[in-house]
Amino acid sequence: MLEKTVFFRATAEADSLPKSVAEIIFSGRSNVGKSSVINALCSQKNLARISKTPGRTRSINVYSVSLRKWIVDLPGYGFARVSLQEKKLWNKMMEECIIKRNSNKTVYIVIDAFVGPTELDFDMTKWLKEYNISFKIIANKCDKVPQTISEDEIQSKAAECFGTDKPNVFTVSAKKRNGFNKLKTDILKFFNS
Ligand SMILES: Nc1nc2c(ncn2[C@@H]2O[C@H](COP(=O)(O)OP(=O)(O)OP(=O)(O)O)[C@@H](O)[C@H]2O)c(=O)[nH]1
Ligand SMILES: [Mg+2]
Q: Which family does it belong to (predicted)?
């Protein structure tokens, strides 16, 4: 199902989007690999644009898995080299995309498994909790983590930090395309429920 995902729309105006029946939204710090995770998840190379330069994704990019079932790629947060005005625009875009649109959604917060969770991620999840929006964690770039640290440890630690259950934390490497079976199962369960 996910392999058939196609580009639907790019916009800065979330309220211009039609209504979905179900959507998963990828959010996270700039450069953690949100777009790469989407590509690996959909077993495609160039579905979402990837870049070595942080701040690549500037608009809300919507991909269609099937009719009105979406994967949404958001611009990353915490990118230092943006102006205050751009940060304000980002906040507005997030609020409109995540809070104001009354959709059936799950937010996947992508973090860098090597760097670990940051204050900005905690701010984001606190905000989601306030608005009762369900979220899960994807620890990407696991290929960068020393072999001495197990995926189980990464999951336990992240679950504790974010105040969620361990099954809500997924460990993947978009680069090596590892760990996607569990994540795919979780996403398909959501889309088919
Ligand atoms: N080592 C490693 N590098 C990765 C992995 N996933 C992504 N990258 C690299 O990380 C960089 C950023 O990837 P993107 O997918 O563009 O990240 P993003 O979070 O979408 O970035 P923004 O759109 O700027 O917020 C690229 O150089 C990727 O090749 C991974 O699993 N392991
Ligand atoms: Mg991106």
A: Belongs to the TRAFAC class TrmE-Era-EngA-EngB-Septin-like GTPase superfamily. EngB GTPase family.
